[in-house]
Amino acid sequence: MALLHHVAALLVSVTVCLGTERAGVPPVAISSGSRDICKGLECPQFTVLNTTDKWELRHYPLTKWVATNATAMNKQEVGRTMFRRLFQYISGANAANVNIDMTAPVATKAIPGQGPNCESEFIMHFMLPFTYWQNPILPTNPAVYIVQTPPMDVYVRHFGGFATDDDYLENLATLSTDLSTAEIAVEGSFFFMAGYDGPYTFINRRNEVWIVKQ
Ligand SMILES: *[C@@H]1O[C@H](CO)[C@@H](O)[C@H](O)[C@H]1NC(C)=O
Ligand SMILES: *[C@@H]1O[C@H](CO)[C@@H](O)[C@H](O)[C@H]1NC(C)=O
């Protein structure tokens, strides 16, 4: 049962390395996927393949992003630094010296550490506005780069509020357990944390964890 092993390995690594506690998480309502979760900002144009009371399965086409990465024990240690680098890129720290519109979500790929020091790699992404996909403007900071994610199907669980690392990890654990129970094969070595709101949005905040379908 390789798939169960993968999910179990992801969970073990997250539990051991990122320190989540498998606290009881109240179930959350799952949206139909039809409303505008990006609140007027440009965001990747996914299609909903399936919806259950536990997750939404989405297909994302190839998507272009500006990204930066860091290694740390948890996202909280490096989140601000990564965000600032990307924010500077859209605020003019780029080869054309132009302002670039903010998009949604801020998507952070986490590759939980397996090593003895348990450090994980975090790669934070802002989607490039579609107008720049053909000819992305290069960043001036060498720690910032343009990347594309391949087409992928992802299982999504969402929750509200101001998300902490623990909130993401608890929801990841719940989603991972639900998928494992359904014997669904997933990519077990990384996951995504997606946040749709800036710090000054106080209501209807949306956060998601994504696990990629195998
Ligand atoms: C959609 O979900 C249902 C219920 O879990 C499942 O039986 C079906 O195979 C799923 N379809 C796809 C395309 O994942
Ligand atoms: C960032 O990613 C590159 C390419 O994968 C890697 O070589 C580098 O070590 C990473 N930097 C950090 C700080 O994790």
List keywords for this structure.
alpha+beta, 9-stranded antiparallel sheet, 3 helices, disordered N terminus, binds 2-acetamido-2-deoxy-beta-D-glucopyranose
Fold blueprint:
Blueprint: H1 2-18, E1 47-51, E2 56-60, E3 63-72, H2 75-90, E4 106-111, E5 120-127, E6 144-149, E7 152-159, H3 165-181, E8 191-195, E9 207-212
Helix pairs in contact: 1-3
The chain binds 2-acetamido-2-deoxy-beta-D-glucopyranose (NAG) (2 copies).
Notes on the protein architecture:
This is Heme-binding protein 2-like. Belongs to the HEBP family. It comes from Plakobranchus ocellatus. The chain has 214 residues and is of the alpha+beta class. It has a single domain (2-212), classed as Regulatory factor, effector binding domain (Multidrug-efflux Transporter 1 Regulator Bmrr, Chain A), CATH 3.20.80.10. It contains three helices and nine strands; from the N terminus they run αβββαββββαββ. The protein has helices spanning 2-18, 75-90, 165-181, and strands spanning 47-51, 56-60, 63-72, 106-111, 120-127, 144-149, 152-159, 191-195, 207-212. A nine-stranded antiparallel β-sheet has the order 1-2-7-9-8-4-5-3-6, with helices on one face. Strand 4 and strand 5 form a beta hairpin. Helix 1 (2-18) packs antiparallel against helix 3 (165-181). The longest helix has 17 residues, at 2-18. The protein is globular. The structure holds 2-acetamido-2-deoxy-beta-D-glucopyranose (NAG) (2 copies). Residues 69-71, 121 line the site of one 2-acetamido-2-deoxy-beta-D-glucopyranose (NAG).
